[in-house]
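Following up on my earlier thread - several people asked me to post the actual chain instead of describing it. Fair enough. Here it is, all 213 residues.
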Amino acid sequence: MRTDDLVGLLSTGIAPVKSGTVARRFGISVPVAVIGATALMVAVFGIRPDLSTIAKTAIFWEKLAFPLCLAIGALIATVRLARPGAKVGTGWPVMAVPVVIVWIAAIAVVISAAPQDRLPAILGHTWRTCPFNILLLAVPGFIAIFWAVKGLAPTRLRLAGAVSGLLASSIATVAYCFHCPEMNPAFWSIWYMAGMLLPAALGAVLGPKLLRW
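Reply from S.P.:
Thanks for posting it. Predicted structure:
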């Protein structure tokens, strides 16, 4: 068989990929993650009663900006890794910068605190439950985002699964901020990060199985 005949045979029946598929799939999955996490937060935990007051403070918006910036970076990375052979690209610095900033703020808080106040600053009042609350709120987004990524033929399945889990958990953390009473960067730097890394680790484990196409 000649090369031209082989190419013709392989290309038979192939239809062009519809334009806008990536936008459509993430246009469905990301709102599902946001709505699902928010609805679960309201139903299971409830909105903090002093939200109208605390929303007037800069520290609340700084707390909200932390997972929101991570979600933006994770979205960039997830969209790229959903395509065959793509790299994370600019997703890495967008995800890394907020983590570095929060860790610098956390170190400053701990160093400046009195010795007896350092551990309470890190543990807060909810360290035992915070990561698992975020994990729960990430479930709708985890399912929806994995659905979106699988339909786009990723090839780096473990990494794609990890950033998909991080995207779901960072969105969940944004929703959780409207319930969580913790207002100290020393707390966020550990327990919010733990909550976001749990679904990321789960995604890395399940990615090769759930994202295979």
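The two ends are 30 Å apart (CA to CA). That should answer part of your original question.
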